[in-house]
Every structure is written in C-alpha cells, then in structure tokens.
Fold this protein.
Amino acid sequence: MNIITTIILSYTLLFFNTTTAIFPLLPGSYKIAVLKYKGGGDWYANPTALPNLAKFVNQHLKTKLEENTPAVEVGSSELFDFPFVHMTGHGNVVFSSDDASNLRTYLMAGGFLHISDNYGMDAFVRKEMKKVFPELEWVEVPFDHPIYHGPFDFANGLPKIHEHDNQPPKGLGLFWEGKLICFYDVECDLGDGWEDPGVHNDSEQNRLKALRMGANLISYAFLGNRE
C-alpha cells in the first residue's frame, strides 16, 4: 500500500479539528516533493521554496511535514510516496509516454500536483499535460472553491506575487470526476513568494500571502481532495 492510499484511508477515520491542528491524530510525518521533469527546463528553480512552505505549514497548522523536500522524477514509482508534488521552472517541459501514464495514474489515485509558472513554462505545461489528460481542459477554479477558503481565506482568488506580464493572477485546475487534482497558478508565481526573503526581495506582506495560499494547497491536497 503506497503512502497516498494510506493517508486517504487514515483521514476517513479523523475528525477535522479547526481549533488545534489539521492532522493532530496522524502518527509519523509525511513528505512533499519537487517534480523533476525532462526537456531542459529548470525544474530545480526556487530551491528554498518548498522547504519554507513545509516549515510554515508545520508552524501554523501543527502538521508534521518533513522539511527536507526531495526531487522525484515524474516517471518514477517513488512519485506515489508523495501526496503533494510541486512543479515549477522557466522553460521547456517534456513528458515521455511513460511519464505521462505514471503521472496520470498518480493523480487519479489521489495524488495532487501544484504547478507554478515561474515565467516561461506556460506553453510547455499546457502541451505536456495534454499527454496526461487529453480529455480534460484547464478551467479557472471558481473563487468559492474550498482551496481558496481553508485554512486561510482568499475571497478574490489567487494573490498577485510577481508581475510577469502584468495580467491578473489565475488559478487554473484540472478536475477528474469532480475532484480538483491539479492546480496551476499563472501570472502569480507562488513558488517565488515561498523563497527566502532575500532571493526576490518580495515584501513580507506578499510572502505571507504566498505562504498562506500554499498552506491552503497543502491542506486541500491532504484533506480536501475527496469532494
């Protein structure tokens, strides 16, 4: 039994406790990872982002995420050890047919993928994710979706972290049988907002917004991916 199945089965036995901790009854700790892909794009961009997010979530939501966040290859069986994976970069992305099949199985099994366009990967993400779910289209996630409202409230959707093309930020999603399985932030760059303060010189206000939205993604991936 892989860790995704274990977590989903465990959560069906838990009561959601909003006054203390989100995962107070789960033993042990759980891992999140950066998705490593082929094609030459810098999948390794923002090296401090995911560790900082894990630390923030542990501090504010009383979780036990491992703060050492490894990279996992998209076609690897180890992908199924991580309930949440984060994908970013500035350029080309290539999924082989085996990569696409593995990622599809992972997401249909309950895994969650967050993609953050670090500027320059949008066209490649759209093309390669079509290999994963050719039957699905990206849709803008409505502002009343739970991912924007727990544990932190974002009534107007994604916060604007970086300018990019000076367009409004958009949260796009892929839904499988009514469930949000992949969240894609465009014209936002949450990952940059999670990095150490001196990397991009983001204001503390913007960093906090980015980290809080990231906490919502983690919370949804672990608890809410069962509508």
Q: What stands out?
A: Helices lie at 3-11, 49-61, 97-108, 122-132, 190-194, 197-200, 204-224. Residues 127 and 220 are 26 Å apart (CA to CA).
